[in-house]
């Protein structure tokens, strides 16, 4: 059997391909489609609002994994319409925007996600700060994450990388 071409080699993620056109169509039609999708999702459903929101976000993740980014964005938009304070949904949508080459939209969603994450979720806040290349914030969040989980090698590794990025010596310790 012939090998399956990777998405990168096939040009699927190239910024000059048809994804941009699909994104334009998505932006032009999303408001009406989100409303239609929400109505379709409600028909015959016997679940709570939280269940439906989780289902919409999960569908968004599934569509994104299949490379169906327009459908993924529709699902994330519908989930955010129901739960605009959910940081995980903002992060999921940011990843889809990034996959479509919409860096400004991805950064905007990650900034929103970061603002919604409570201080006690230092590890998650550190990861979002790293995605935004905000290394000084990431340093502080990683220091807090390391205090909560001192034996976790990943936080130590990320902290070393951040120290390198901002030009400071790394000292292993709290």
Number of strands: 0
Number of helical runs? 9
Quaternary organisation:
single chain
- The percent range for helix content is over 70%
Could you list the spans in which at least 5 consecutive residues all have pLDDT below 50?
Answer: 1-21
First-residue to last-residue Cα separation: 53 Å
Protein described:
The protein is mostly helical. Mean pLDDT is 81; it is low at 1-21. Helix 3 (49-65) runs antiparallel to helix 4, helix 3 runs parallel beside helix 5 and helix 6 (103-116) runs antiparallel to helix 7 (122-131). It is built from nine helices and no strands. 72% of the residues lie in helices and 0% in strands.
Features:
174 residues, mainly alpha, 72% helix, elongated, disordered N terminus
Fold blueprint:
Blueprint: H1 7-10, H2 18-42, H3 49-65, H4 69-82, H5 87-99, H6 103-116, H7 122-131, H8 135-148, H9 153-166
Brief digest:
The chain is mainly α and 174 residues long. The protein contains nine helices and no strands.
């Amino acid at each position: 059997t012939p090998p399956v071409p990777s998405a990168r080699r096939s040009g699927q993620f190239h910024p000059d391909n048809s994804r941009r056109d699909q994104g334009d169509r998505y932006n032009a039609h999303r408001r009406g489609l989100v409303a239609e999708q929400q109505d379709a999702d409600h028909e015959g459903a016997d679940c709570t609002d939280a269940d439906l929101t989780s289902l919409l976000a999960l569908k968004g993740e599934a569509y994104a994994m299949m490379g169906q980014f327009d459908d993924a964005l529709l699902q994330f938009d519908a989930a955010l319409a129901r739960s605009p304070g959910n940081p995980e949904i903002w992060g999921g949508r940011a990843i889809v925007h990034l996959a479509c080459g919409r860096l400004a939209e991805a950064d905007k969603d990650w900034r929103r996600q970061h603002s919604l994450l409570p201080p006690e979720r230092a590890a998650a806040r550190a990861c979002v700060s790293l995605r935004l290349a905000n290394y000084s914030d990431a340093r502080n969040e990683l220091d807090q994450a390391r205090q909560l989980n001192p034996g976790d090698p990943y936080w130590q590794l990320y902290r070393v990388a951040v120290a390198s990025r901002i030009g400071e010596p790394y000292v292993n310790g709290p």
